[in-house]
Amino acid sequence: MLPSSIQISGEPLSGAEVRDICRGLRDNAVRLLSLRGCRLCDRDFGRICRALAGATSLAQLNLNLGVVSSPSRIKQLAEALRTNRSIQSLFLHGSPLTDAGLALLNPALALHPALVALDLGDCMLGDEAINLICGLLPPDGAKSDPLKEGGLELSRNGDPGIQATAGLKELTLSANPGITPKGWSRLAIAVAHSSQVRVLNLDYNPLGDHVAGMLAVAVASSRTLEVLDLEGTGLTNQSAQTLLDMVENYPTALRSLVLAENSISPELQQQICDLLSEGEEEEEVAGGPGDTQERERAWEPAAHQRSSSSWTGPSDPSSQMVLMTSGLGDSLLAETEM
């Protein structure tokens, strides 16, 4: 039987449903597990973590909106991630992690051999968390190993006894207002030198024009960044002009720049959009029709990529089912299967 999906949103989970989920994970019958906003007791959360630790088919794990709600749950998830080897996309949006919680998760994230997409939006993070996250965006494409408590300080050569692990390709840090310009500047440097990151979502953070200028330099330096989301980040025409100059004068991999809900004139936004569209058209002509079709398939909206095989426990057939994933997350899964 092909691996399928368990997708439940905003529901209280019964003991029977938790048993069904754990059985599916142990039987390697689940490719995507989404429990977005679900309510369950600590004991059942621990049972699910123990089951996903040994799951070899699970590629996407969505625990958005407060499922990971306490230090004890953070520790249980970290233990599971230390053992698991298959999860490629981890969504923790809206979890009250704080810097201390991310420090608990960090060693497992840094050493996970498959993880390439991470959503830490609205997780109450600050500058200390950014220091850890930068270790997941290494210059050589392999994540550092956390030898120091709460940090990623090992040299790039690494521990000869630990296998190098891939860096992140997609990172979401939306709505973390506790991060200061100092933290964003450090992230911008890491993005500029990362050999992997393709999608960076920073929407609804109070970045302002100064941070946007640093990000423009990072985008100009990056060889891989294709999508940058700066929606609702307090930008003005000043930073938009800087971004326009960057797009107009420097060849980059950037294909999408989201600037909605900022104090930027429609004319400037349209100019940037037109230049990005021109660059993509030129790439399509140069790459040929085969390359174009592959790119369109990879970035097809998630709604069109959902598997027709969906699995849920028989205990509650009326549970609301949703899929929370990004286009890149699905394309990464497709690349792995190919």
TrEMBL record:
Provide this UniProt record's keywords sorted from A to Z.
Repeat
Domain of life (superkingdom): Eukaryota
Q: Low complexity bias located where?
A: 307-319
Q: Where is this region: Disordered?
A: 278-338
Q: Which PANTHER family match?
A: LEUCINE-RICH REPEAT-CONTAINING PROTEIN 34, LEUCINE-RICH REPEAT-CONTAINING PROTEIN 73
**Protein name, as recorded:** Leucine-rich repeat-containing protein 73 isoform X1
Organism of origin: Bos indicus (Zebu)
